[in-house]
Amino acid sequence: MQLVCVDCGVPNPQWATIPYGVFICLSCAGLHRGLGVHISFVRSITMDEWTEEQMKKMRIGGNLRFTTFMNEYAPAEQGGYREGMTIAEKYNCWAAAQYKEKLSVEVQGQEWSPSAPPPNFGQPISRPSSAQGVRKSRTSGRNSTASPLRRDSASPAPNNVAAS
Fold first, then answer.
1. In sequence order, what E strands does 25-109 have?
2. Nearest to 29, CA basis, from 39, 42, 38
3. What are 21-29's contacts with CB under 8 Å, separation 24+?
């Protein structure tokens, strides 16, 4: 059997996301790294060292098992997977959280039982309106009539360098 990337179907994936026990391609590995290690911990299948527990997750898990679980998770309205989700949506949905928990429990030799998503799961965390869009400008402290030398450096300021 030839392996394919669980997310995009590219043949011969050289990466894996350990929490889900699935194989992914280089492009998808980059996207997974952007999710953060609390969601997806990515390893090269040839260049990285693996612990016995990580190997066990890959043996117990696998692309087919993950895909089957995600497709069969019900009810879909309560955090299930839907065709066309982005990688971020897919791995942040409740079904993925349940699969990750299931795989971890099974690796420990214990029995897993599903749970309903907590209230407000998947809804964006709102920030106070006072924090929205507040950012100090990098140039707010500069003065256009300042000395041609930077305050913190002996180098001439880039805007005030005369052409020779």
1. 42-44
2. 42
3. 21/57, 21/58, 21/59, 21/60, 21/61, 21/62, 21/65, 21/66, 21/103, 22/61, 22/62, 22/63, 22/66, 23/63, 28/87
Give the H or E element holding residue 91. helix 87-92
Quote the CA–CA distance of 79 and 97 in Å, as a whole number. 9
My answer on whether omega of the bond before 75 falls inside 30° of 0, hence cis, is yes
Residues belonging to the chain: 164
CB contact set of 13 (below 8 Å; sequence gap of 6+):
3, 4, 5, 6, 23, 24, 25, 28, 45
Chain position carrying tokens 């066309």: 84
Q: Are 16 and 22 in contact (CB under 8 A)?
A: yes
Q: Which of 22-26, 44-48, 90-94, 115-119 has the lowest mean pLDDT?
A: 115-119
Tokens for 100? 């990750």
pLDDT, one tens digit per residue, over 49-86 is 999 999 999 999 999 999 999 999 887 777 888 888 99
